[in-house]
Specification:
18% strand
Length: 237
């Protein structure tokens, strides 16, 4: 099968012993479609890993940052089907519903800044410091399987880098922080978001008002049906 080089938004700055030029991906085939069809709300994280194990070479899927994975998912939709994906939105000015085609190839992609490195130190109140890393697919799998009621705390505890604490100790550390400090940890993840910006500007066909509209990732991008499938096939001709 033909594999094409994929330049990731992370620039591979956070991957140890990974050659950026060696990361390649191929288009979807019928066997991959079966795996996509088997995706459910409960298995989605592990299922996407299985899919990328077939599609991706040069890096293990669970190593990917969340932003890199989203980029690759959008890339698969474009390369395997079409750059045009139908969405609907309600105009904020005239409240009329618009049916438009989002151009996935024109989504802005944010890259990690040159020189970014992990762990990244964030200074908390009273001069305290915490070392952090970005979320990985492996974290999302762990979070999906977590059964505790404090999954919010568990999520951010996973990003704390400290070899002297296990995950339970990291959770206790996060729990005792003042919210100004937990906000600083959360802001780190916002600040270094990388990947496609899932939004696009459209002009209302009824009143002409322009607004930026969310283009959320949907499984239908990789397994289109009905009008979406028909539109994909027409745009690919």
């Amino acid at each position: 099968m033909n594999y094409i080089e994929a330049s990731l938004p992370s620039k591979c700055l956070v991957y140890k012993d990974v050659d950026p030029a060696g990361i390649k991906i191929r288009k979807l085939c019928g066997e991959d479609e079966q795996l996509i069809a088997d995706v459910t709300l409960t298995n989605i994280e592990k299922q996407f890993c299985l899919i990328f194990e077939r599609l991706l070479i040069g890096i293990k899927p669970e190593q990917l940052t969340i932003g890199d994975r989203l980029y690759l998912l959008i890339r698969e939709a474009i390369d395997s089907y079409s750059k045009d994906f139908p969405i609907k939105y309600t105009c904020g000015t005239c409240l009329q519903e618009n049916s438009v085609l989002a151009d996935l190839s024109k989504l802005d992609v944010t890259a990690l800044p040159d020189g970014f490195a992990e762990p990244y130190q964030v200074i908390l109140s009273e001069g305290k410091a915490v070392n952090l890393r970005l979320f990985r697919v492996a974290d999302e799998i762990a979070i999906a399987g977590y059964t505790g009621r404090d999954s919010w705390i568990y999520r951010f505890a996973l990003s704390i880098v400290d070899t002297n604490m296990d995950i339970m100790q990291k959770m206790q550390f996060f729990k005792k922080l003042p919210v100004r400090d937990t906000a600083a940890i959360r802001e780190f993840h916002d600040k270094f978001y990388h990947g496609p910006k899932m939004q696009q500007a459209f002009e209302c066909r009824f009143c002409g008002a322009s607004e930026v509209v969310p283009v959320p990732f949907r499984l239908e991008m990789l397994l289109p049906t009905g009008p979406t499938l028909e539109g994909y096939l027409r745009s690919a001709v």
